[in-house]
Amino acid sequence: MTALRFVAMPTADAEHLWNGGRDAYDRLPETMVSDGPGHPCRHCLENIDDGEKLLVFAYRPFPELQPYAETGPIFLHKQPCRRYAAEEILPPVLMTSRDFILRGYNEDNRIVYGTGAVTLVGEIAAYGEKLLARPEIAYVHVRSARNNCFQCRIDKAEAPALAQSGA
User: A Pfam family in this protein (predicted)?
Assistant: First the structure.
């Protein structure tokens, strides 16, 4: 069994936007007011509550431009929030729908064909483990099953460091 980590948007990416930076399309984020469920923050991986301000912007969760570097709209609390830390637990944002798309990517950040599947919430961990057990898959994206928006990433959990012997 492969241990999993559910990984939120990096804090450096969120801070860039909170500090007035531009998005993946070189545009300033738009500010909206949440009207309740349906605005998941990709940094804390919780829903943005009714009445809270949020940023909506184009995000590309890949290190560089290339044909498979999908870009799409996502949300972020307008005010800084704490990054999701309980990485071994299914994030609250994934409890907002009955299913999501899981898709595997290789070390070159290319889609591994045949891995994309609409997956019920209760099966996300098992399918993520199955994908990450394959040697050609470096990580998995969790995306909206309806709009294909990036939710979070799934990585293999790092093996605990072995204690060095004092002998």
Answer: DUF1203
Question: Taking Cα atoms as reference points, which of 76, 72, 81 lies closest to residue 21?
Answer: 76
Residue given tokens 């984020």 in the structure block: 29
pLDDT tens track of the chain, all 167 residues? 568 999 999 999 999 999 999 999 999 999 999 998 889 999 999 999 999 999 999 999 999 999 999 999 999 999 999 999 998 999 999 998 999 999 999 999 999 999 999 999 999 999 999 999 999 999 999 999 999 999 999 999 875 544 444 43
